[in-house]
Amino acid sequence: MTSRTLPAAIGEAEPHSLRYFDTAMTDPGTGLPWFVSVGYVDGEIFVHYDSTARRYVPHTEWVKAPGAVDPEYWERCTQILQRTEQVYRVSLGILQERFNQSGGDLNLAHLPLCFLCCYALPALLPVK
């Protein structure tokens, strides 16, 4: 299971799905973050992180509600994603180096690169 676990705030009456999508780009465009992580519960965005704000931010009322989530949860997840951001930065650099080859039919030296990762945890919570 990912270390960014679903807060108990969602309840445990029925199964839910939890998915995270991480995207990292070498050239996202003017004013756009190069790294974004978005968390979904049952297809609804509930958290967001990007390389500009560098904070893990709640997006739904149920997760923003006072007492719904341990306040340390936001700080822990922010730290995890700041480290993850650095891993993606290094990985993108390695890809750029590997594809920056002279000769051959394919040269991606001047093309932007992008990663998209998905973490899917269907039926995360048990049915009671």
Give an overview in words.
With 128 residues, the chain is of the alpha+beta class. The protein has a single domain (16-102, 110-121), classed as Murine Class I Major Histocompatibility Complex, H2-DB, Chain A, domain 1. 26% of the residues lie in helices and 25% in strands. The protein is built from two helices and five strands; from the N terminus they run E-E-E-E-H-H-E. It has helices spanning 61-64, 71-99, and strands at 18-25, 35-41, 44-50, 57-58, 114-121. Strands 4-3-2-1-5 form a five-stranded antiparallel β-sheet. Strand 3 and strand 4 form a beta hairpin. The protein is elongated and about 50 Å long. Mean pLDDT is 77; it is low at 101-109 and 121-128. It is found in: Membrane. It comes from Meleagris gallopavo (Wild turkey). This is MHC class I-like antigen recognition-like domain-containing protein. Residues 15-104 form the MHC class I-like antigen recognition-like domain. Keywords: Disulfide bond, Glycoprotein, Immunity, Membrane, MHC I, Signal, Transmembrane, Transmembrane helix.
